[in-house]
Amino acid sequence: MVAQSRTPAAVVRAAGEIGEDFAAWRKVLGLTAAQVADRADITRDTLRKIEKGDPAVSFQSVLRVARALGIMDTLTDALDPLKTDIGRTRAGLISRKRVG
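Structure (tokenized):
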């Protein structure tokens, strides 16, 4: 029997916050769940899971929703280590360089 691992509380919390933010973006943009699901090429059930913070939803689905909401660049910029002091200091450890 294979033991199932529990999702760490920090991951559950972050997934919930990200889901709430995605739902807020959708509402700010005046889009329905059906519109976002259609634009992201996912089911409404998958969108609901993302917005409710289900950490088991595929990474691809999350990125598809970010793209459908027009926040893909915001997301990638937020994660870019070269936009931080430590990332720029240790840029030599990174094999790619970003312009901008």
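Helices lie at 9-28, 33-40, 44-51, 59-68, 72-79, 85-89. The chain has a mean pLDDT of 92.
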